[in-house]
Amino acid sequence: MATLLRSKLSNVATSVSNKSQAKMSGMFARMGFQAATDEEAVGFAHCDDLDMEHRQGLQMDILKSEGSEEGGEQPLEGDIHYQRDGTGPLPPSASKDAGVCSELSGQGKPKITAWEAGWNVTNAIQGMFVLGLPYAILHGGYLGLFLIIFAAVVCCYTGKILIACLYEENEDGEIVRVRDSYVDIANACCAPRFPTLGGRIVNVAQIIELVMTCILYVVVSGNLMYNSFPNLPVSQKSWSIIATAVLLPCAFLKNLKAVSKFSLLCTLAHFVINILVIAYCLSRARDWAWDKVKFYIDVKKFPISIGIIVFSYTSQIFLPSLEGNMQNPKEFHCMMNWTHIAACILKGLFALVAYLTWADETKEVITDNLPSTIRAVVNIFLVAKALLSYPLPFFAAVEVLERSLFQDGNRAFFPTCYGGDGRLKSWGLTLRCALVVFTLLMAIYVPHFALLMGLTGSLTGAGLCFLLPSLFHLKLLWRKLLWHHVFFDVAIFVIGGICSISGFIHSLEGLIEAFRTNAED
What we know:
With 521 residues, the chain is mainly α.
């Protein structure tokens, strides 16, 4: 009897402990998700969400495996392939978390409100790359302002139709969610002939965008430090090397918990910097050069501006995950409307007043135009933000690469880069360090913020925000679309394709010319 009583007390204590841990884990997972959406693309917000989905996917795998063990089935060993529906085999290291995971799997994912989702989208499309928008007005005039509005409308629309592709009508006539991610949508469009081709294309585009974002952070860090301290005998390339030395520990990251603590502070600091820039511009309102803003375009450089503007709106890659985590997904459309309207107004005002202040002297990074007395302080804050933001796209790129090449079960191209104890193998760490060094080399040989941003926006930004959503919408839902939806989708695909090709060609030409110049020097 004493043994039985002691056993029951032990079980109760374990249950209470597991519930407490589960609640805390759920709270931190929710905080981690929100913090991870601090930056642009993709891409950046996807990082902690991948980590959270992976952990909660393992929890579902544990429950499935426990049920299968009772029925006589044994999970496959050595396979760490993960599937969201819980059908994937159980990782060997997952059983130690069974108690906590069981409790969490009953709770489901922590849901977020429409306001929290809007904050995430706002962080993604109002990042520090807004600093390049005045340079786009320099080469586009009023047409550049129109393009800021047009890009907001189109990206809002394509975000909505991308989410529509997640749903289908079941036998009872109910609209149900049958897909979970951008990759699932792409694979559905290419099935049955090429069931994985679409997902691979999306993954490649995502990796390119994430790596290019990392390169841009190194470029902007070197540029800002060089222009903040021009009297020091340190070149922009040297500042980029110093920045990369600070970023090298990113190769050892296992998750973004440590970094995510600073993300909210970084976002608030960036908004303060934008306000300071606008306040300085307003203080010089009497000297604004309205006559410099004209209805003209620089044929050679304006296509680059298109890529810059498009890149500043990229958020589609994480919208399926965001919508799936909302308490009321029906509020998604309203949330997209007010976030993009707010972004359009703020970006347009920021770009216009900054250009009016400096006119033809507007530089690629607008803070370089500030007086030396305040430029150094503002730029140091921006460099700190860039360095703290770098781990987000870097970690997301590493996650995608590892899942695609090293951890995709029997379909992996290479053996797993993790040992049996879960530790990263030495050659896996070497590959991560090589990725950091690659971003440095690109930043050294092509230290042009506007060209790199334009190239990325024209290549992956236009593809992920304009071309693919409209194409997928037509492919999956064309039988149910009204004529004006078909017209909008075709128009966006055609216009987006023209802008993408034009911007890519001109950006690539500029990069090749810059690369040759640097090679000669």
